[in-house]
Amino acid sequence: MIIAVDANGGDYAPRELVKGAVEAAEEYKVDIALVGRKTILDMLVRHYASRPSFTIIEASQTIEPNEHPVQAIRSKPDSSIVVGTKLVRDSIASAFVSAGNTGAILTAAFLNLKKMEGIQRPALCGLIHVNAANPVLLIDAGANVDCQPSFLVQFAQLGTIFAKGFLGINSPRVGLLSNGEEEIKGNLLTRDSYQLLKKTELNFIGNVEGQEMLKGKADVIVTDGFTGNIVLKTMEGFGDTFQNLLGVGQVFRVDHQLQGPALAHYVELGSTVKRMDYKEYGGACLLGINGNIVIAHGRSQAKAIKNAIHLAHRAAHLTPIEAIKNGYHLSN
Question: Per-residue pLDDT tens for 121-153?
């Protein structure tokens, strides 16, 4: 099993991408193919790896964050994103990890790997692990800004199948993100989606409000990509801000002021905030495509890339594509 990694994508490429890949290879014993400029990657691998044994695949072009996805894919056929998705298409790699231009990754995956039969729109499935006892899958986390109710039903089905393997839950509880628990609450998309979800064989528990997302009420939370992406980025920003606040005078407070229950609460709070850090969960899986694609945060550094590779490795072992094909009937 080989995991292909986009060494050109992201704010800290290629150095942090190579560092993360080296750490993942050593910790998880996974074979990695770095996709990017070979001369640079050869040098970095020799610098960071104690035993350089990485496959390096040449990709001379890079799609920048501000480029139009479709135009970039067409004008840069030798970009790391295009080359990486083709490695999955041709069964050379079991998964592809990229922290590059999200729109370009989605476009390349759509063009090169194609949607699975019966899927209307692929969706990004992200892990929210703030509550250690009850991790939650959020779908869609940003792939589809404008949605129809039937899309959300399929997102729920995709999330349910993925949760069975990834979270080990036989009958995942599905909640619909809304601004109230009552069936009549929400915008037109939410209300119509609620009516469709009621008719499925899913373990649909109804609406879930924003403050309930982290309380373990649902295992899979369904929403449109516009809302889901805002949710993830809000949590990310809160985590960043809180970590900065905790870091100011931390040693003095712990050593000289906090004792007993107060110290225990402080440690628990620090652990919770750490789990909100995007670096801990690595990225989001693109479900509904004929191939395993993990999209990492554009600001990913070595730790986030290492965890994204671990996520891709787990996804490849769980074979979600086969599970989806053999799972629920996907409504058109």
Answer: 999 999 887 666 788 999 999 999 999 999 999
Rounded CA separation 144/234 (Å): 18
**DSSP character at residue 298:** T
Q: C-alpha distances in angstroms, 109 versus 83, 89, 189?
A: 11, 9, 27
Q: Order of strands, edge to edge, in the sheet holding 55-58?
A: 55-58, 31-36, 2-6, 95-98, 292-296, 283-287, 123-128, 136-139, 220-222, 173-177, 203-208
Q: How many other β-carbons are positioned within 10 Å of the β-carbon of residue 251? A: 8
What residue segments make up the domains of the chain, in order of their start? Answer: 1-115+288-320, 120-280
Do the strands 173-177 and 203-208 form a parallel or antiparallel pair, or are they unpaired? Answer: parallel
Calculate the average pLDDT of the chain: 87
> Which fold, 120-280?
Isopropylmalate Dehydrogenase (3.40.718)
What radius of gyration do the chain's Cα atoms show?
A: 20
The alpha carbon dihedral of 180, 183, 185, 189 has a sign of positive
Cα separation, 190 vs 93, in Å, equals: 38
Q: Let me know if domain 1-115+288-320 sits in CATH 3.40.718.10.
A: yes
Helix (H) or strand (E) holding 152: helix 149-166
Residue corresponding to tokens 């070595």: 302
Tokens of 21: 């890949």
Report the amino acid identity of residue 113. Answer: L
Q: How far is CA 314 from CA 178, 244, 303, in A?
A: 31, 31, 17
Fold match, 1-115+288-320 / 120-280? yes
Higher pLDDT, 43 or 266: 43
- Give the pLDDT band (50/70/90) at residue 255: very low
3-state secondary structure of 77: coil
